[in-house]
Amino acid sequence: MSILLFVMLGVFIFMMFRRNKKTQQQQAELQSKFGPGVEVMTSFGLFGRIVDIDEADNKVTLELSPGNLATVHRQAVTKVIEPAVETPAEPAAASPVVPDDASSLTTPETGSTATGAETPEETLKRLNDEGKKDS
After folding, report:
1. pLDDT (0 to 100) of residue 109
2. Partners of 63 in the beta sheet?
3. What are the distances in angstroms from CA 129 to CA 3, 102, 109, 125?
4. Residue 126 and residue 113: Cα distance in Å, rounded?
C-alpha cells in the first residue's frame, strides 16, 4: 500500500514539474516575439503597440493611442496580438441585406402605422397624436 502512495506522489511531482516547464517555454516564446511595433495585450486588458523595451529595468513602453504612452512591467504583457488574416469577400448575394433604418423592420400586421413614404410633417402629426392618446 505504501508503494502505491509513493508512486502517486512521484506522478504528482512529475506533473507539477512538467507544467512549470511548459509555462516557462510559453513565456520564453512570448518574450522572443517582443520588439518595437508589435501589438500586445497586458494582463489587465490594456491593448497597445510596443514602442521601447528597457531590458535593465524590465519595463515596456506601450503606445495605447497616437501620443498616449504607458510604461508597464515586462511580465504584465501576456499576449501578442497577431494581425487578422483577411479572407476573400463573399459574393454580395450570399450576405443578407441589412436596412439602414428601422422603418423597414416593422410591418402593418404588428399595428405599426409607419410607412416608407411618410413626410416629416405627417410624422410629427402622428407622433403628437400618439402622445395625446397616452394621456
Report:
1. 57
2. 49, 69
3. 88, 21, 20, 6
4. 9
Q: In sequence order, what are the residues at sequence separation of 6 or more whose Cβ sits closer than 8 angstroms to the Cβ of residue 61?
A: 50, 51, 52, 53, 54, 69, 70, 71
pLDDT, one tens digit per residue, over 81-105 is 877 666 665 555 566 666 667 666 6
Distance CA 54, CA 34 (A): 12
Residue reference for cell 494581425:
83
Average pLDDT over residues 30-41: 83
d(CA 36, CA 49): 7
DSSP β-ladder status, 47-54 and 59-65: antiparallel
- Indicate the pTM of the whole model: 0.46
